[in-house]
Structures are given as structure tokens and as C-alpha cells.
């Protein structure tokens, strides 16, 4: 569950700096800089990303400005696996479910049960409780014709009211 982040890796003229451009804004119009795990005090998506990158190893610092992530690499490190960490930032479950192991019994689904249509007069069907689902009728439905209202003796007639 979740959605992968589209990531484009960009190399800079300095081999110790990698830049990643993503299709999401992590900081809005602001920016965040992380030099160590101690700099991460909150648990926002940008903080989670910095934590994962720093814990991966080979990273001296992370700077995020909106949708651009700049990673300062340790000497000699080339940044293997960093793009995958960024892509999986919002992934919580794998795409493909794991296949059952060989020899594991998986119960087969039962075939659907064929139902016979109800027959008879419409009034008979409406009165049968099992028919209510098929016809949409319910025991709580109002009768087809509502009884006429009796006049209310406390309510004045409109005929006796003088016109303006």
C-alpha cells in the first residue's frame, strides 16, 4: 500500500554530492538540513527520509528543499541504494504478495450456489419474507396508498379568513 515516489538522480560536478529530484514536495517552500541523526527531532516525511538516508550509511548530510534532495556522500561512497530509499518513502507494503510455499495446502474456493427465481403473484411475493430482498420490499415500507387525512378540528379553515 502506498505509492512510489518518482525519482530522477542527478550527478553534480562534485562526486561527493548527489542530487535527487522527486515528484513530491517534502518541505513546501522551506528547506531542511540534517548533518546527523541528532538533527532529526520530528517525524514528518522529510524527517523520516533523512533518518533512512543517514542510517543507510555513507551519507554525511542531507539537505531537502521542496522536491530536491541533496545528499553529501562520505569519501569514496557512490550512493548505491539511496534512490531506492527515496522511492520507497511512502511504501508500506510490497506490491506483490508472497507466494505460498510449496506443499502448503490452500483451500479451494467453493463454487457459487445457483439460486432459483421466485415465481408467483406479485402480492404473494411481497408478503413472503424471503422475497423482500428480490423485490426491494421491506416490512418497514409504507403502504402503497396512504390513508386520507381526517380534518383537524383545531385547525381553522382557510375559507373563513378575510382577504387583504
Give the strand content: 15-25%
Largest sheet entry: 5 strands, antiparallel
Reading the helices and strands in chain order gives EEEHEEHHH
Assign the structural class, choosing from mainly alpha, mainly beta, alpha/beta, alpha+beta, or little secondary structure.
Answer: alpha+beta
Helix content: 10-25%
N-to-C span: 70 Å
Mean pLDDT: 80
- How many beta-strand runs? 5
- State Rg: 35 Å
**How would you describe the shape?**
elongated
Strand order of the largest sheet: 1-2-5-4-3
Q: Name the poorly predicted regions.
A: none
Number of H/I helices: 4
Quick take:
The protein is α+β, with helices and mostly antiparallel strands. It has helices at residues 45-56, 82-87, 122-127, 132-135, and strands at residues 7-11, 17-22, 31-34, 59-65, 68-73.
Structural commentary:
- The chain has 164 residues and is an alpha+beta fold.
- Helices cover 17% and strands 17% of the residues.
- The protein contains four helices and five strands; from the N terminus they run βββαββααα.
- It has helices at 45-56, 82-87, 122-127, 132-135, and strands spanning 7-11, 17-22, 31-34, 59-65, 68-73.
- A five-stranded antiparallel beta sheet has the order 1-2-5-4-3.
- A hairpin with a 2-residue loop joins strand 4 and strand 5.
- The longest helix is centred in the first third of the chain and has 12 residues, at 45-56.
- The model has no long low-confidence stretch (mean pLDDT 80).
Offer a few descriptive terms.
17% helix; alpha+beta; 164 residues; five-stranded antiparallel beta sheet
